[in-house]
């Protein structure tokens, strides 16, 4: 084997090793980067959740299941929630 062949084999071995290392790092990041809904706590987040719960409770209390029939899709419900919160919270 000549020097060039040795260099090529060395490069290929390093490249394969780097690929294995990158794959391992990606797996580790996937395992450690999971983020659940309740992972973080913040006063704004808590207030937003509370306002959303209150909006749902009030709507369902007034209209029952028919409350949800007022909206064609999620965007419609979110729009109504934002209008409600916009008038209640400043």
Kindly describe this structure.
- The chain is mainly alpha-helical and about 90 residues long.
- The chain has two domains: about 1-35; about 45-90, no CATH class.
- The protein has helices spanning about 5-30, 45-65, 65-70, 75-90.
- The mean pLDDT is about 85.
Features:
90 residues, mainly alpha, 2 domains, 4 helices
Helix content: over 70%
Structural class: mainly alpha
Separation, N- and C-terminal Cα atoms: 77 Å
Please tell me the overall pLDDT. 83
Which stretches are low in confidence, meaning pLDDT under 50 for 5 or more residues running?
none
**Helical element count?**
4
Overall geometric form: rod-shaped
Oligomer: single chain
| Beta-strand percent range | under 5%
Radius of gyration: 27 Å
Task: Output the helix-strand order.
Answer: HHHH
Total domains: 2
Major sheet details = none
Number of E strands: 0
How is the topology of this model organized?
Blueprint: H1 3-32, H2 43-63, H3 66-69, H4 74-88
Summarize, please.
By secondary structure, the chain is an all-alpha fold.
